[in-house]
Amino acid sequence: MSYGLASVIPSYRQALDPKVEARALERLAKDPQVQRKMKDFETAIGKAKDLDAALRDPRVLAVLLPSMGLGDQLDYPGLARRALAADPADPKGLLSRLTDIRWKDAVVALDLKKKGIEALRDLANLARFDKGLRSLQWRQSLDETTTGLSDALYFKQVAASVTSTYGLLGNAVLRRVVTRALGLPDELALQSVEAQSRAVAKRLPLADLRDPKKVERLIERYLTHANMDDAGQGSGYPLSLFA
């Protein structure tokens, strides 16, 4: 819940200060909840005989998904098990059919298909998971005072790497930021993917995502809309305007 629209942009800019995040992550290194989750994770991967066995363990997913930006997928352990074990190079495989490209990004980043469970035991990745959990906890705390702030920080981090409108729509966080910043209604999701892509492309040239100033303006519009909606001040738009 936002404490007021006047504080939204200042809160965002404060969160961009590397020192602010560094202090928060250092503090959270001693957090009992983070420590317990990491200990449970290491115990689970130590006992698992292979990647499939590890991915069937809730203790593994409780760390792996949130730390890789997939915390909103914890309610779908079956999908997680299949997606994280899938071949990212298979043009007809599961990862190629999923609209949310975060799954493929995670598999590729960790090289899960090639390394299997050893990827989860790798010391560098263990450090990555630990930092990811702490970063997530910090960003979630920011959302308690400024709605959408964690989304905004993630968007700023990855926006320049997006290569297509489908890439925007295929990432749940990026989609949320862009559609709300552009004032597109939730009902847009009822249209075909092609229609959704046209609606976004008409209003947001991909080149804008590689322009830091335009990315900042987009983020600020998103945060303003998100907090207006949160405060009950948002205004709806008929879907026909975006066909």
Please tally the helical runs, counting DSSP H or I stretches of 4 or more residues: 16
Distance between the termini: 32 Å
| Biggest β-sheet strands, sense, barrel | none
Q: What's the Cα radius of gyration?
A: 19 Å
- Poorly predicted runs: 235-243
| Overall pLDDT level | 90
Shape: globular
The CATH superfamily name of the largest domain is AGR C 984p-like
Question: What number of domains?
Answer: 2
Overall description:
By secondary structure, the protein is mostly helical. The chain is 64% helix and 0% strand. It folds into two domains: 31-141, AGR C 984p-like (AGR_C_984p-like, Orthogonal Bundle); 147-234, no CATH class. The radius of gyration is 19 Å and the shape is globular.
Brief rundown of the structure:
The protein is mainly α and 243 residues long.
Features:
2 domains; globular; AGR_C_984p-like; disordered C terminus; mainly alpha; 243 residues
Layout of SSEs?
Layout: H1 8-15, H2 18-28, H3 32-47, H4 51-55, H5 58-67, H6 77-84, H7 94-97, H8 102-110, H9 112-115, H10 117-121, H11 123-143, H12 149-158, H13 165-169, H14 172-181, H15 193-203, H16 212-230
Helix pairs in contact: 2-11, 3-5, 3-11, 5-11, 12-14, 12-16, 14-16
